[in-house]
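Issue 218. Parser rejects a valid record. Input:
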Amino acid sequence: MTFINSTCLDRNIPDECHEKLKSFINGGHRIIWVAFPPGGGNSWSVITDKTFFNRGIPDECHQKMKGFFNAGHKLLSVAFPPAGGNSWSLITDKTFFNRGIPDECHQKMQELSAAGTKLFAVGFPKAGGNRWSLVGDKAFFNRAISGECHRVMRAMTSSGLGPLRVTAFHPGGGFVVVTKGDALFVNHPPLKMANESFSLTAFADNIRNQLAGKGCKYALMVRYGPAIRTATDGPKRTTKSPPAEDFTVFDWFNPASVAKTVTGVVLLQLLEKKNLTIAEKIYKHLPSSWTIGPSLNTITVTELLNHTSGFRSGATAYDDLRTMVEAGIKLADKVPKYQNCNYALARIVAAYINGNDESKPDQAKVTSENFIGLAQKNVFDRLAIPGVQWKPDADAPTLFYPTPPGNSTGTAYGDWSLKPGSAGSHLSIGELSEFVNGLASGNLLLSSTMRTQMDANGLGWGKVEDVEKGWYYRKRGYFPPGQNGGAELNSGIWKFSTGVQAVVLHNGSPEVNMPIAYNDAWS
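Output the parser choked on:
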């Protein structure tokens, strides 16, 4: 069932419920909530902004709703655990009341409410037992729900579209998560240059029009000020790799080399913390068991991060990086040359600046975990993005396909947890947008001094000046089709000098032509 303001669409619900909804809407009511007890049949509860109506629900629940309503409460939601009987949870704008729900759920509701969180809704998966989801204006809490539902709730909350309003579970195993989403509809502040005005909506439309129908799927999120616009189309997974699902801006995926910007931030944070500069020589921060090869002692952090180190290697794994370092470089090669190995080695440098325990076995794992921990603590935790993985989800990960997908079972582009740095951080479009916003706004991720050095020296991304109004910093990600069963990925993040931001994914070709999309958004 879908509700949008005063509009209602429903399918296969009891006729009386359908007619009651229609009657309420025709009477000027706004539908707030609809719930169905697990027993089925003609049993349901409808809450509007003016009243409520119940049919066949537990009598105590009905009486409690009536009591609260008559006492001046605004009813917000009612939910019924799958065990049935006289078990339910009722939330109003002033309090809540539970009967027969899991004890831990009841206690968590008390805890959150006492801490000042305004509760909105609770949901109970079909599997029953101590499984539930609770959402409020300041927090949400889940117990034993599906990993995918939890990740979507997390991504919605951290991408600027929160707070969550509804979480509900279908008997067939599906779920619904609703967020307030004000940023999707709010007008942005005027942005004018040279007698022309910028439209964020037109910007999003321009990107979408470039990609629609060209590949297997696309997604975008653009922002300016408090306003956000999004668009998606295409499968997260197809019937050849069930469960078949549509892709959303809240689904994790590997954005390829966009992760290099994250790695750059991690290393720059460490330099500042340790009172080091971007001219720091990297050989000082490599394993003591590695032989420092010819001319390695000349390479600085700046050169590593802007691809002028002189390395010429496809190395990303620990042992291959050691071989590369011990082979050394040619000074004549210290010119711009994009190499993934630079950011793979950056994770080793970061781990050693942070302090790496060489007494532990399996240094490939130790240094990777050291780096991943730094990224989580100093980047993702600051953005309220918990538990970022550098490998595909164990539970139905996002897959990428050829165009058209045909019989392909798709690819997630592999496990990068032992070779992070150059790629592999699994994030959603929404979370990537929050990362760009964190870099563009304030000192949450980097001090203004270090952010200026990052931008000026191309450390983690590069400056491009091919737009008519201002310029932008960009990091592109790419997985080629020839190495991935025909599945091509083009991704990117953009920070414009005007304050506009963009994140784009295209499972297919071409890469978005950002100058055209941006320039045409001015009129």
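Fixed in the parser; the record now loads. The chain has three domains: 2-182, 184-258+388-519, 260-377.
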